[in-house]
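Tutorial handout. Part one gives the primary structure; part two gives the three-dimensional structure as tokens.
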Amino acid sequence: MGKPKKEKEIAIPTSEEIESFGGSPVSETGKKSVDGKGTATSEIPTEAKPGDAEVVDWKDKFLRAKADFSNYQQRATREMQEAIRYANFGFARTLLDLIDDFERLLQTPAPLKSSEGMIPAVRLMYDKLQKILKDYGVTPIEAIGQPFDPTGHEAILEQPSADHPPRTVIQEVHKGYRMHDRVLRPARVIVSLSAGGKRQSGGADVSSTKEDGDADV
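Part two.
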């Protein structure tokens, strides 16, 4: 019988050699290590890393901030809806006194409803209504005697006039109003032309006077 073959000895690399070939360093918590027999083992960390608590803290702050912002959005939406719904609350409340005046006037006994007695009462209520509108920034648009302004005037007719310059409002058919700087309703007016000007009706664009020497089309 032949002699038994000797088992080939396997050299176990050192930790420095393992690291040089990209292996794992010798035992650190959570990393591979090599035991005395050359077997690679894996150790499970039993303690949290120092930065874990900070990460959890920042995550908690983020979630709280997100919840607060969501609550703020919902509250702002509700407040905006309420503001839109009751935007005219104060204006409507001021009109209640005027409604009371009208009701008292309508309930006046028939013998007292003469023109001499009704006109002063109606004038008083009219003045009160104008004051209410003024308090809310609603004012009449000046028209008669003013140069025609297409931003606040609507020309419904043009008439020749020897007493007014061309493009001047000579009559107000329907009073206009503005609220602060915004026109609520333009004033419907009649605008002057020179003696030789053409008359137009129903148009907002007031034509200029015809120059001497121009031929009619």
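Part three, for discussion. Residues 89-136 form one domain. Residues 34 and 40 are 5 Å apart (CA to CA).
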